[in-house]
From TrEMBL:
Protein name: Fumarylacetoacetase
Active-site residue numbers: H144
GO MF annotation list: fumarylacetoacetase activity; metal ion binding
Organism: Acanthochromis polyacanthus (spiny chromis)
Chain positions covered by the region annotation Disordered: 181-200
Residues that hold Ca(2+) according to the record: D137, E210, E212, D244
Pathways per UniProt: Amino-acid degradation; L-phenylalanine degradation; acetoacetate and fumarate from L-phenylalanine: step 6/6
Binding, substrate: Y139, R153, Y256
Residues in Fumarylacetoacetase N-terminal domain copies: 26-129
SUPFAM superfamilies: FAH, Fumarylacetoacetate hydrolase, FAH, N-terminal domain
Broad class of enzyme this protein falls into: hydrolase
Catalyzed reactions: 4-fumarylacetoacetate + H2O = acetoacetate + fumarate + H(+)
Keywords: Calcium, Hydrolase, Magnesium, Metal-binding, Phenylalanine catabolism, Tyrosine catabolism
Amino acid sequence: VTRSYTTTKEKMSFIKVDATSDFSIHNLPYGIFSTSDNPKHRIGVAIGDQILDLSVIKSLFRGPVISKHQDVFDQPTLNAFMALGYEAWKETRKTLQVLLSDCESTLKDDVSLRSRAFVHQSAATMHLPADIGDYTDFYSSRDHATNVGIMFRGKENALMPNWLRLPVGYHGRASSVIVSGTPIRRPSGQTRPDQTKPPVFGPSKQLDIELEMAFFVGGGNRLGEPIPINKAHEHIFGMVLMNDWSGKNLYASHQYHPYCTLQNPLLGHFGSLLEAAASTSTLPQHDWL
């Protein structure tokens, strides 16, 4: 029997969420996790100090889009889910909010299902959430660009004229994106401290760590087909914090090359931010929620 869910005006989770937690029913981030008793990598959603295992509850996703693709929640990465696009993401988020609501009994009152579906975050090991096929690093902070420009070119030429007109960035090595906690090897390269002598090779003496925002993009587009700015939010799946490690003295040495310029801006809204920006009175009601 197919069960239909009804939306509720108030969104309160039946999972106890501490007031200091970042993961309320309004912020449900995805991740890939495993546990000692189940080493399989699987998709989970954070709620309070718990992780909801989507592979366990995949049959409860009965909306018109995601009901045809419940198998994506059995995958070891988020790639297949991200590839489904914006409508699938919205539908999944709304279903999760209903299932976690204290007004919905499907998950709340099923003791057996709850025992299998929830894992305490302290018992989980987190993994890289996606197979990353491409990585583009944008140079989007004016203060940072100015400071680096002074270091490389002096105060008079700190900010290049193109920086104010287009998104400056470069393609990085996608294979170097790793999950938090992975040991980092100090990078090595050539420097030329004495301009009268040949360059020397060795480890960086100025290892720099930059805290950045990284966006996961999904949904795709046809080769050569641009994505308009007003459609960007339909391709931005989510955001993570990212440390960008680099050997600044290697950049400032004779190895340094100017960053490439890229013509496609990357900006938009997603998930919680998009919902918060919308008036709840304009949100459609669906009989499958």
